[in-house]
Amino acid sequence: MKKTVLLAAVLQLFMVLGSCSSDSDSTSTPEPPVVVIKAAKVTSYSKNFGEAGETITIFGENFSDKISDIKIAFDGVSAAVVSSTATEIVFKLPSTEKLVPQLSLTIENRTITNEVKNDYKGNIGVLPKSSTTDWFTMDNVLKNENKVYSVQVVSDKIMYYSMADYGASGVYRTIDGGITFVEWGRTGFSGAFSATKNDEGWADTAFGIQKVPVGGSPTMEFISATTKGIYYSVYVDDDMKKGTIITSYGDVYSTADGVEFSQVYDAHFLDKGFDSGSIIKSDEIDNDHIWAIGMKKVENIYYPFILFKNNETEGWKEHYFASEPNTLAAEVSFADKANGYFLINNSTIYKTTDGGDTWTKIYSGEKFTKLVFKDANTGWAVLENKIYKTVDGAKTWTLDYTNTQAIKAIGYKNNIVWAISIDKIIKRYL
Questions:
Q1: Which residues fall within 8 angstroms of residue 6, CB to CB, at 6 or more apart?
Q2: Three-state SS for 153?
Q3: Residue 189: partners with Cβ closer than 8 Å, 6 or more residues away
Q4: How far apart are CA 317 and CA 145, in angstroms?
Q5: What's the predicted TM-score (pTM) here?
Q6: What pairing do the DSSP bridges indicate for beta strands 55-61 and 148-153?
Q7: Residue 352: phi, psi to the nearest 5?
Q8: Could you say which DSSP state residue 70 is in?
Q9: Could you read off the pLDDT tens digit of each residue along the chain, which spans 430 residues?
C-alpha cells in the first residue's frame, strides 16, 4: 500500500514540473528580426550649380524619410533640409566663401556613395545671391593681371572676354555665371572676337580668322580671310555665314557664306602711308550696324575717327572729329542702332542719336577708361577701381560702386552688367 501511494506522489510531482516548464516556454520573448540598412547612393542633382538660397534636389537610393537623419554641409556650412524621402533630398544652398565648396552628406547609419560626375568633381557650385539693388562680387577664378580687350555678355550666366595671354590673347567663356571659365578661342593682339548664341563664332588671330566650334577650342581652324593688318572688328551672324571684319588699316571685308570674303570698303590708310590712320576698337550690333574707331591724319593733324555702317542701304561712312585735334579715340558704345557714345581722350564724351551720322559733345570731366550703355540714357563708366552711372544720357555721372582693385572691363546685356578686375567678377542685376 505504501509503495502505491509513493508512486502516485512521484507521478504527480512530474506532472507539476512538466506543467511549469510548459508555462515558462509559452511566455518567453522572441528574438527581434535582423534589420539590414542598405548603403545610400547619390546619382544626380536637379542642378549642378545655383545661387545661395536656391532650392536643389539630390536624387539617389536608400535615403531616409526622416529629415532629422539628414545632414548636408558645404565646406562645413550647414544647409537647411526641406524634405526627404528614400530617393530625394530637397535642401537650400547656403552662402559659401568658395564657388565650389566641398559637399558633405551624412545620413544616420548609412554608408553613402556619390556617383555624380560633373564639372565640379561631384560637388555643387554656389553663386552669391544676386541683387537688383546693389553690386555684388564673386571670385575671378582666372586671376589674370593682363589687359582685358573685349567683353561679350549673353546673359547672367554666359559671358565671354578676351585678355592678353601667352604673348597674344585668349578668349575665355563661362556658362555657369563665372564659377568656371574655359578657353574658348585664341586671338591676336586686338582681342577681337564674335560669339554666336550657339556658342560658336570667329576670333582674330595673327594668321587669319579662327572659326571657333561649339564649346570652343584652342586648336585653330582658319577660314579664308587673307588681309593686311590686324582685325579690330569681327562679327558673324548666328548661322556662321554672313559676317564682317575690319582691319587696323580701315579695310572692310564681308562674306555671305562664311568662307569667301570680298573687300567692300577701303579707308585708304595704306595708300597715304602707315601713319595716316588706324582702327583700334569697335562695337557691333549686327552686320549692318558696326562702328569702328581710331585716328585719322588730316593735313598732318590727327583726329579721332569713326568708320561705320548704320543701315542696310547706304554702305560704309567715315567721320572725324574736327573739333578734337591731336586727341585719342578711347571707347565706343552703342545702346541700340541709333543711340551711341564716343569717348575721346578718356574725358570727353560725344553722343549720337542717328547711328553716327551726327555727334554732339555731351560731357567733359573724369578720365574714364570704359563705357557701356543699357539704353539712350542709362550707362556705366569705369574710372580706375570705381564704376560711375548716368541716367541722363552721359550729361552727369554719380559714383555707383567702388572695388578694391582696378576694373579692367565692363559689359552689358539682358539686364545684367558684368565687370572684371584681377580677382573679382562684379555684377549688377537690373
A1: none
A2: strand
A3: 168, 169, 206, 230
A4: 37
A5: 0.88
A6: unpaired
A7: -125, 145
A8: E
A9: 444 444 444 444 444 444 444 444 555 677 766 556 789 999 999 999 999 999 999 999 999 999 999 999 999 999 999 999 999 999 999 999 999 999 999 999 888 999 999 999 999 999 999 989 999 999 999 998 889 999 999 999 999 999 987 656 889 999 999 999 999 998 888 999 999 999 999 998 877 889 999 999 877 788 866 667 789 999 999 999 999 999 999 999 999 999 899 999 999 988 777 789 999 999 999 999 999 999 999 999 999 999 999 999 999 999 999 999 999 999 999 999 999 999 999 999 999 999 999 999 999 998 999 999 999 999 999 999 999 999 999 999 999 999 999 999 999 999 999 999 999 999 999 9
Residue that is written with C-alpha cell 539682358 in the block: 414
- Cell triple for 241: 555665314
Q: Which helix (H) or strand (E) is 186 found in, with range?
A: strand 182-187
d(CA 232, CA 315): 19
Contact present, 301 and 326 (Cβ < 8 Å): yes
Describe the strand order of the beta sheet including 424-429 as a list of residue ranges: 136-139, 424-429, 416-421, 407-413
Q: What is the dihedral of CA 298, 300, 302, 307, to 10 degrees?
A: 30
For 17, the enclosing helix (H) or strand (E) is helix 2-26
